[in-house]
Amino acid sequence: MTEAAWEAEWDRVLWKKKSYPDNYVPKSFLSSLSRNSNFVPYTYWYLVRASCAISQHLATIFIFLAVFIQLNESRLDARVLIWMSIGAFITGYALWELVDCRSDSKTSTGANHAKAMKSSILVFLALMALSPVLRTLTAATSSDSIWALSAGLFVLSALLADYTPLRAYIHHQERLTSVLSMNAAISSAVVLASRLPDDQSVFALMLFSVQLFALFPILRRRLQTGPGFLQGFVTLSLCGSSVRLAASVSRIGTCLVFISLSFVMFVGPGVLIWAQKYKNEIRGTWDPAVPVLNKPDRFGVTP
What residue ranges are annotated as transmembrane (predicted)? Predict the structure, then answer.
């Protein structure tokens, strides 16, 4: 039997009895080969906007470290930090309401306002009561161990943080990595607060850490669904504040903060754009079909 007859008879099954060998492959087998058929290239500014969430999280860590150093060196009054934390809470709550109003969300009710206020008061009182305990928590531990532990916990927090948007009209269950990220950041704040000299400074730093690592990540994810200019304003404000606070602590630290934030926001997206040309996804008729039930939007959220 000729090869032309084999090619006409060939079928992509092995359970049928055929006249040609099982390892026979016709010349037309690769005719339907496609490369990067489902690949949609990213644009540079889209990736810059997507990296704002990472930059915001890193900026909050740098801000917290700078505030801790100033408190530890008695260059910042704890009472000023307490009022700044209260003002930041009011501002963040107003931003949340603004984004909800623009998205026509009906989640903001009087009951939710009362619940948020009650929870805030309970956290405030709990931190005030625990401040004397936290101040002496690591009295028997050397400072070198505390610095290493806090650095490792902050790195873990940045790696495990959830940077996906948060839709108001969809019920989201917090991911395990997101919970671990918050716990790591709060734990690092606890061990650093235990090195402060007085209870008022411990209370102020812990209240500030709750704002940055427990409440702000929720607001950050919510802002990703809001107007682009609002997210850009928050990102620039946090990055500028982190660089300015680092400048008051150390010149080397300022350079490290600036380089880290610049790499995440501008260099990283450029590297990804450059690497796209090496993407080579080969698909053919031999691949199983992949059903697409809910097509995600540009930020990877399925409706």
Answer: 44-69, 81-99, 120-140, 202-219, 226-245, 251-275
Q: Give the pair of three-digit tokens for residue 273.
A: 């754009």
pLDDT band, residue 27 (cuts 50/70/90): confident
Return the axis-axis angle of helices 78-102 and 199-210, rounded to nearest 10°. Answer: 10
pTM: 0.79
Q: Report domain extents, the chain.
A: 44-104+112-273
Residue 45 structure tokens: 């500014």
What is the reported pLDDT for 301?
A: 47
Report d(CA 297, CA 279) in Å as an integer: 21
C-beta contacts of 130-134 below 8 A and 24+ residues apart: 130/206, 131/199, 131/200, 131/202, 131/203, 131/206, 132/199, 132/202, 134/190, 134/193, 134/194, 134/202, 134/206
**Do 20 and 41 form a contact (C-beta atoms < 8 A)?**
no
The closest alpha carbon to 205, from 192, 218, 220, belongs to 192
Q: Which residues pair with 52 in a beta bridge?
A: none
Pairing mode, strands 34-35 and 282-283: antiparallel
Q: Is residue 78 a contact partner of residue 71, using CB atoms and an 8 Å limit? A: yes
Q: Judge whether 169 and 102 are in contact, CB under 8 Å.
A: no
Q: By the 8 A CB rule, do 245 and 84 touch?
A: no
Structure confidence at residue 146 (pLDDT): 92
Overall size of the chain counted in residues: 303
| 7-44: b (≥16 Cβ within 10 Å) or e | eeebeeeeeeeeeeeeeeebeeeeeeeeeeeeeeeeee
Question: pLDDT tens across 170-181, in order?
Answer: 555 667 788 899
